[in-house]
C-alpha cells in the first residue's frame, strides 16, 4: 500500500461526499456512535486534564504570587492545545480502532465485496459516512472537552482561592482570542478527518483473516496518533505566525 | 473437448462470454487462458480442486478483480472496460452468493435483505420492501427469520439468506461460490435443490463454482473441469467423468472416498 494509494483513497472522499446518493441516516448513526458514545470518556479525561493542570501549575505561579493568573493560564492551555489534542488522541483510540476493526472485519469476511456486487458503493456507505461523522463530531467534542476541563480547573481554584464561578470564567475567557477558537476548530476538523480517513483506509485494506483485523485496528490508532502530532505542530506554527509571535 | 477452451457450438443467447482470460497474483499465475460461454437459462458448473482459480474467475466476472489479459463480456458489456457507474448498473443484474455467505453481521436478516433493495430502489414504499423481503425469504424456505441476527443462523441457513439477498434484486445471472462448502450432506442436498428452484422460478442463468461432485451432478447442465488455471474437459457430468484423464479420475475417486 503506497503513500500515493493512501492519498488517492483520501482525496476520493471529496469527490464522493458531494455526489448523491447521500446516506444521512448512516451519518447520524455514526455521529451517535462516535460522538455521543465518546462523551463519558471525553468528560472524564477533559475534567481530569483541567484539574491536574491547575494543580500542577499553582505552585509555580504561587512562587511569584501570581495565582490570580491561573484561570487565564489554564484557559489558554486548554483551548489552544490540550482540548483539541487530548480529544483527538482519545478519539484515535476509541473511534479509530473501532472503525479500523469494523471495516477490517467486513473486508476479511467479504462483506465489503458483498456490497460491491449488490451495486452499493462501499466507499460512500462505509467510508464517507464515518469520515464525515468523526469530522463533524470532533469539533463538538473538543469544545465540550474544553468546557469540562475548565470546570475541573474551576473546582480546584474555587477550593483554594474561593474564586466565584463568574469571576473565574470572566478571567478565563478574557485572554482567549478569536484566533484561539478558530485554530482549535481547524485543528479539530483536521484531526477528525485524519482519524476517519486513516482508520477507514487501514480497515478497508485489511488482509490475512482475523489477524489482519487486529493489525488494521492497531495500525489505525498508531498512524492516526502519529499524524495528529505532526498536524498539531504544523498548525501551531501557522497560528503562531498569524499571531505574529 | 480440446485443451483449455469451453465453447460449445450453440445458437442460444449468450449471457456471458469469456475469451483468453489470464490472471496472476505476483508470480502465481492463477488463470491461464480461460474461454467460457454461459447461455441464457443454463447452469454451468466450474469444477475443480481448491486453489485452481475458480473463485478468481467469478470475481473477475463480477468486476471484483481485473484480468491481466482477455475479454469478459457479461450481458453485452465488456466488464474490464466499464466505469464505476456502468459496473453498478451491470451488478444489478448479477447475483453473487459468497462461499461464507458474507452477511452483514451487524444487521438482522430482514435488514440484510432490505439493504440492497432500499439502496438501489429509493422509490419503493415500506410495504413494497417488506413484501419483497417476505417473498425471497419464502423462496429460500426461511420465512420467520426476519428478526434473527446472522450469528443465530446455521451454516445452511446463512447460505440461504445469502442467496435470498441476491434474489431480492431479481438478477438475470447467479454466480455461486462454493455453495455447499462446509455443509453436511443433507443441507448440501437442500442447497442444490434451492439452486435448481432459483433457476426455475427466477429464470436465472448460473455459474456454480464447486469442488463437490454431488453439487455438480445435481445442479449443472454443463460441467467444466478446471485444473491449474485451465479447463481440461467440458460437457455433461457423464461426459466429463467418462474421460481417461488421470487427473479427472483421481478427482472423482477422491470425492467418492470423501
Structure description:
The complex is a heterodimer of chains A (245) and B (258). Chain A is mainly α. Chain A has one domain (23-243). Helix content of chain A is 85%, strand content 0%. Chain A contains 9 helices and no strands. In chain A, helix 4 (70-108) runs parallel beside helix 8 and helix 8 (178-204) runs antiparallel to helix 9 (209-243). The longest helix of chain A has 40 residues, at 122-161. The mean pLDDT of chain A is 94. Chain B has 258 residues and is of the alpha/beta class. Chain B folds into 2 domains: 1-93 and 177-258, P-loop containing nucleotide triphosphate hydrolases (Rossmann fold); 98-170, no CATH class. In chain B, 38% of the residues lie in helices and 25% in strands. Chain B has 9 helices and 10 strands. In chain B, strands 6-7-8-3-9-10 form a 6-stranded mixed sheet, with helices on both faces. Chain B has a 4-stranded antiparallel sheet with strand order 2-1-4-5, with helices on one face. In chain B, strand 1 (14-25) and strand 2 (28-39) form a beta hairpin. In chain B, helix 3 (109-120) packs parallel to helix 5. Classes of the chains: A mainly alpha (245), B alpha/beta (258). Chains A and B meet through helix 4 and helix 5 of A and helix 2, strand 6 and helix 3 of B.
Give a nutshell description of this structure:
The complex is a heterodimer of chains A (245) and B (258). Chain A has 245 residues and is mainly alpha-helical.
Amino acid at each position: 500500500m503506497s503513500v500515493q494509494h493512501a492519498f488517492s483513497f483520501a482525496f476520493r472522499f471529496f469527490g464522493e461526499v458531494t455526489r448523491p446518493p447521500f446516506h444521512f441516516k448512516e451519518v447520524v448513526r455514526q455521529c451517535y456512535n462516535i460522538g455521543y458514545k465518546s462523551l463519558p470518556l471525553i468528560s472524564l479525561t477533559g475534567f481530569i486534564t483541567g484539574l491536574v493542570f491547575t494543580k500542577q501549575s499553582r505552585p509555580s505561579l504561587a512562587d511569584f504570587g501570581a495565582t490570580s493568573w491561573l484561570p487565564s493560564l489554564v484557559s489558554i492551555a486548554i483551548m489552544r492545545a490540550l482540548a483539541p489534542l487530548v480529544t483527538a488522541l482519545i478519539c484515535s483510540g476509541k473511534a479509530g480502532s473501532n472503525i479500523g476493526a469494523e471495516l477490517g472485519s467486513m473486508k476479511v469476511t467479504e462483506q465489503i465485496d458483498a456490497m460491491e456486487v449488490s451495486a452499493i458503493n462501499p466507499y460512500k456507505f462505509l467510508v464517507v459516512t464515518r469520515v464525515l461523522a468523526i469530522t463533524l463530531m470532533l469539533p463538538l467534542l473538543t469544545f465540550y472537552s474544553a468546557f469540562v476541563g475548565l470546570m475541573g480547573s474551576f473546582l480546584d481554584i474555587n477550593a483554594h482561592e474561593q474564586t466565584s464561578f463568574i469571576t473565574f470564567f470572566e478571567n478565563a475567557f478574557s485572554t482567549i482570542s478569536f484566533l484561539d477558537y478558530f485554530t482549535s476548530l481547524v485543528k479539530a476538523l483536521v484531526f477528525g478527518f485524519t482519524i476517519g480517513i486513516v482508520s477507514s483506509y487501514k480497515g478497508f485494506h485489511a488482509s490475512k483473516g482475523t489477524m489482519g483485523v487486529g493489525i488494521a485496528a492497531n495500525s489505525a490508532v498508531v498512524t492516526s496518533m502519529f499524524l495528529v502530532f505532526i498536524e498539531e505542530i504544523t498548525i501551531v506554527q501557522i497560528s503562531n505566525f498569524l499571531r505574529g509571535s | 473437448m480440446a485443451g483449455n477452451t469451453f465453447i460449445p457450438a450453440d445458437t442460444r443467447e449468450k449471457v456471458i462470454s469469456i475469451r483468453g482470460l489470464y490472471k496472476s497474483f505476483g508470480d502465481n499465475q492463477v488463470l491461464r487462458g480461460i474461454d467460457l460461454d454461459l447461455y441464457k437459462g443454463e447452469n454451468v458448473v466450474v469444477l475443480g480442486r481448491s486453489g485452481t482459480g475458480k473463485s478468481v474467475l467469478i470475481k473477475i466476472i463480477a468486476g471484483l478483480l481485473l484480468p491481466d489479459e482477455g475479454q469478459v463480456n457479461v450481458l453485452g458489456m465488456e466488464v474490464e472496460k466499464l466505469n464505476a457507474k456502468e459496473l453498478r448498473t451491470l451488478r444489478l443484474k448479477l447475483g453473487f452468493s459468497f462461499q461464507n455467505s458474507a452477511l452483514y453481521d451487524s444487521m438482522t436478516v430482514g435488514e440484510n435483505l432490505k439493504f440492497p433493495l432500499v439502496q438501489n430502489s429509493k422509490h419503493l414504499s415500506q410495504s413494497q420492501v417488506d413484501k419483497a423481503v417476505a417473498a425471497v425469504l419464502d423462496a429460500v424456505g426461511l420465512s420467520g427469520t426476519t428478526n434473527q441476527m446472522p450469528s443465530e443462523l446455521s451454516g445452511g441457513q446463512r447460505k440461504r439468506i445469502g442467496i435470498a439477498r441476491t434474489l431480492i434484486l431479481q438478477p438475470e445471472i447467479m454466480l455461486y461460490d462454493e455453495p455447499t462448502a462446509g455443509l453436511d450432506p443433507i443441507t448440501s442436498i437442500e442447497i442444490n435443490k434451492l439452486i435448481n428452484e432459483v433457476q426455475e422460478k427466477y429464470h436465472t442463468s448460473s455459474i456454480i463454482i464447486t469442488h463437490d461432485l454431488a453439487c455438480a451432478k445435481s445442479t449443472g447442465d454443463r460441467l467444466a473441469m478446471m485444473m491449474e488455471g485451465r479447463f481440461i474437459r467440458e460437457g455433461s457430468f457423464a461426459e466429463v467423468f467418462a474421460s481417461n484423464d488421470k487427473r479427472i479420475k483421481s478427482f472423482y475417486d477422491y470425492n467418492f472416498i470423501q
